[in-house]
């Protein structure tokens, strides 16, 4: 019987983040509603690229929530949060194309808290050979 570890408690949190990201991805298909920090509308290609990135990262995070003990998938998921944090920080502080509004600050808070939670969970992660997959003979 496994004890409850922070790594296994992270799984519901990742599932919630996945659900929110799916909703956000659906919102980005309203292509005219996306705007840069200066108030200009972004073009369709930019909006679709952002939507696909959001969908891809949410799929990775959902898979990690399903198989939380897969260390490789756990580390890839952690990297998606670092990428999201880096993206929004550079848009906000380096390029100046994002204004400090709730739509920018919310992903920063989610990415930061997810990184902290996953780093804490990483030290408790029990690396199971092959995760939930069948062992090969």
TL;DR of this structure?
It is found in: Endoplasmic reticulum membrane. By secondary structure, this protein is mostly helical.
Write the layout of secondary structure elements.
Blueprint: H1 6-27, H2 44-66, H3 71-94, H4 102-122
Main location: endoplasmic reticulum
Family: Belongs to the ERG28 family.
Protein name: Ergosterol biosynthesis 28 homolog
Provide tags for this entry.
137 residues, mainly alpha, 0% strand, globular
Helicity range: 55-70%
Oligomer: single chain
Silhouette: globular
Order of helices and strands: HHHH
Q: Biggest sheet: strands, sense, closure?
A: none
Structural class call reads mainly alpha
Quickly count the helices.
Answer: 4
Q: Low-confidence stretches at least 5 residues in length (pLDDT < 50)?
A: 28-32
Intertermini distance? 25 Å
Mean pLDDT: 78
Number of strands: 0
Number of separate domains: 1
Strand content of the residues, in percent? Answer: under 5%
CA-atom Rg in angstroms:
17 Å
């Amino acid at each position: 019987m496994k004890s409850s570890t922070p790594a296994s408690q992270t799984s519901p949190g990742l599932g919630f983040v996945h659900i929110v990201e799916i909703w956000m991805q659906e919102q980005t298909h309203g292509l005219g509603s996306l705007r840069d920090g200066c108030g200009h509308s972004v073009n369709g290609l930019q909006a679709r690229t952002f939507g696909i990135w959001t969908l891809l990262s949410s799929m990775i995070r959902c898979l990690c929530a399903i198989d939380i003990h897969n260390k490789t998938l756990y580390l890839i998921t952690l990297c998606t949060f670092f990428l999201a944090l880096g993206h929004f920080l550079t848009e906000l502080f380096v390029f100046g194309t994002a204004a400090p509004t709730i739509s920018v600050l919310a992903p920063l808070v989610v990415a930061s808290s997810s990184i902290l939670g996953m780093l804490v969970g990483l030290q408790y992660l029990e690396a199971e050979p092959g995760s939930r997959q069948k062992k090969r003979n």
